[in-house]
Amino acid sequence: MDSWQSAPESAADYAVLRATDIMVPMRDGVRLATDVYFPAPPDGPDARVADPAPAILIRTPYNKTGSADTGEYFAGRGYVVVIQDCRGRYRSEGCFYFLTQEAEDGYDCVEWVGAQAWCDGQVGMMGTSYLGWTQTAAAVMNPPHLAALVVNQAGANAYSSSVRHNGTIEQRFLAWAFMGAATGTEAIADPAVRAALNDVRASQWLDALPWSENQTPLAHAPSYEQWALDLYRNADYSDYWDHPGFNFEKHWNNHADVPTLFSGAWYDSYTRATIENYVGLSERLSSPVRIMLGPWTHGSTTVDQTFSGNIEYGPQAPVAGNLARDFNHLHLRWFDHWLKGLDNGVGNEPPARYFIMGGEAVHRTPEDRLYRGGRWASATDLPLANAQDTPFYLGSGGTLADNGPGAGGATSFEYDPDNPVPTAATCRHCPRLIPCRRRSPPKSSTSSAGD
Predict the structure, then answer these.
(1) CA-based, 20 to 30 A from 23: which of 60, 218, 342, 370?
(2) Each residue of 393-431: pLDDT tens digit?
(3) Nearest CA to 177 among 205, 155, 135?
């Protein structure tokens, strides 16, 4: 039996009360819509528990009601859970500008929560993807009441990885602008704007790059059009990318010195950023900084799966095969230790946990996935001290080997910048953001096998 299975933890002993749409003021007067989930006595759940409790804060652009299950889970275990719509999203006031608003707003919200009579002064944060960005954006402002973080699959430097990749725009965020505009405050307030932005085929407009003002349906939501154009036009590194909402790497020295767990996935677009945040902050913080990397794709539900795409890694692959029963329980153990002081073993766990993929007999599963297996390992640090760089070489017939360049022959590939390989974020043929194989005949070029 793993030690965590017998360790003390917060039990689901409470009923839950919810206060909705509390309008929390920011420093500039804009108010952000916030739901608060309170633990309540199970035998009389018409009033919250009187004693103050640690709080868990989630800040999201994806509608705070979508995180209601998380609020119920942690409030039922004695935490106050605060879930907030980001500025300009759903029921919050103000204009949304991608990422750059989250540093100051995050600081102000952490401090508002920490000062409430129902909070014991400790605020933890959690969330995935954009909800992870909102955590680190707040943390680099060093709010005094911030006490712990669990950042799942989020950025470190928007210019070098994840919004631009070493300067090259990741078009998925331009597609995100269309999705966001359709659910932004302009669309919510005006049915005509909402109708114009619904059912937009993002791939059509990505094919029409570069954009100008008033050229795309984003003209119906000027704040979204502005940040989308700014992301696209700022191709060279400049002060624009130094903002603490974009570039945490530049502001690591100011990061709150609190226990921080970075959770990442080998098949995630934020793998590089997750490792960069871990390495950079491990060198700077006196508080524990941990990292967990699993064989997952992007998201908060994939971490509880045994497979990624059509590859099966076995029952040991999910979080349940590692340090907890499931992903919520992983967060619970972290917050129980650092916010409630429970001696559950979290303080003694290794800094790095990572899943080694493969190594088992390959076969097809009943679900027609390719079984590869794997196992969890731990380390005192990343990069691994015994890691060795291994050069691989292209060979004829599409082969890849570590025994030197291929002997003769050539490997060719087809490349057309007007017809790129589609990804799950920017498929040019489909109205939804999913991959497909529908291709038009590409132009052709050839390179030698050793290139």
Answers:
(1) 218
(2) 887 777 788 887 766 666 677 878 777 766 554 333 333
(3) 205
Q: Please list, in sequence order, all residues whose beta carbon lies within 8 angstroms of the beta carbon of residue 112, skipping any fewer than 6 positions away.
A: 24, 25
Give 52-103 as a DSSP string.
-EEEEEEEESS-GGGGHHHHHHHHTTT-EEEEEEPTTBTT--S---TTTTHH
Q: State whether 125 and 50 are in the same domain.
A: yes
d(CA 35, CA 23): 9
- Domain shared by 209 and 317, yes or no: no
Shared domain for 410 and 361, answered yes or no, is: no
The one-letter code for the residue type at 99 is L
Q: Show the CA angle centred on residue 381, arms to residues 378 and 382, nearest 5°.
A: 95
**Who's near 393: CB < 8 A, 6+ residues apart?**
400, 401, 402, 403, 404, 405, 406, 450
- DSSP class per residue in 308-330: ETTEE--TTSSGGGTTSSSHHHH
In a domain, 360, yes or no: yes
Pairing mode, strands 146-152 and 164-165: unpaired
Exposure string of 422-436, with b = 16+ CB inside 10 Å and e = fewer, is beebbbbbeeebeee
DSSP per position, 178-245: HHHHHTBHHHHH-HHHHHHHTT--HHHHHTTPSP-TTSSGGGGSHHHHHHHHHHHH--S--GGGGSTT
Name the H helices within 260-306.
271-282
Angstrom distances, CA of residue 316 to CA of 29, 294, 350, 356, 363:
49, 10, 18, 11, 17
Query: What is the Cα Rg of the chain in Å?
Result: 23
Residue type, 235: A
Q: How far apart are CA 175 and CA 228, in angstroms?
A: 9
What is 233-247 written as a DSSP string? H--S--GGGGSTTTB
CATH number where 355 lies = 3.40.50.1820
Assess contact for 208 and 201: CB atoms under 8 A. Answer: no
* Residue 186: domain span: 168-235
Q: Which of 87, 81, 96, 118 is nearest to 25 (CA)?
A: 87
Q: Under a CB-based contact definition with an 8 Å cutoff, are residues 141 and 101 in contact?
A: no
3-state secondary structure of 141: coil
Name the domain count of the chain: 3
pTM to 2 decimal places: 0.89
Cβ distance 114 to 144 under 8 Å?
yes
Higher-confidence residue of 210 and 436: namely 210
Model confidence pLDDT, tens digit, residues 197-236? 988 888 889 988 999 999 999 999 999 999 999 999 999 9
Closest by alpha carbon to 178, among 221, 213, 209?
221
